[in-house]
Amino acid sequence: MNKYILKHLLALGMILFLSYSSFSQAKKPKIMVVPSDVWCSKNGYTMEFNNQGSIERFPDYRRAFQDNSDLLLVISKINELMADRGFPLENLESKLKTLQSESAEDAMLSSKSGSDASESPIDKLKKTAKADIWMQVTWTINQTGPKKSITFILQGLDAYSDKQIAGASGTGLPSFSAELPVLLEEAVLAHLDNFNAQLSKHFDDLFANGREVVLRIKKWDSYEGDLESEYDGEELGVIIENWISDNTVQNRFSTSDATENMMLFEQVRIPLYDASNRAVDTRKWAVGLQKMLRDKYNITAKLMTKGLGQASLVIGEK
Question: Does the reported pTM lie above 0.70?
Answer without folding.
Answer: yes
